[in-house]
Design goal:
alpha/beta
């Protein structure tokens, strides 16, 4: 029968240190009625199927809601990811977008 080894061992935690501070959540809209909603997608998992369903259901619940399709922004993942994400705040402001639904595949 083997006996436990003697001595001390380094222990490694499987998570990394925090890369950033936790920020407070953005203020929520009381209603989506009359709001402009942008869809963002990383082009990895079924956004082309899911976003039309979301648009249909949200339109039935909130009169005057508008949508900006994911095609307007490009993929939020891939070789142009950094440029797309860097320009996103200005583009959303220019388009007067009130909220974003971001779809990500895993």
């Amino acid at each position: 029968m083997a006996t436990p080894a003697q001595g001390s061992y380094s222990v490694v935690w499987p998570r990394s240190r925090k890369a950033g501070e936790i920020a407070p959540l953005a203020e929520r809209h009381a209603s989506l009625e009359g709001k402009k909603i942008a869809f963002l997608w990383d082009y990895l998992f079924r956004g082309d199927e899911i976003f039309p369903m979301l648009a249909s259901e949200l339109s039935a619940r909130y009169p005057g809601i508008e949508f900006v399709g994911h095609e307007t922004f490009g993929s939020t993942h891939g070789d142009e990811e950094h440029e797309i994400l860097a320009g996103l705040p200005e583009k959303l402001r220019d388009m007067e977008v009130d909220a974003v639904i971001s779809g990500m595949g895993c």
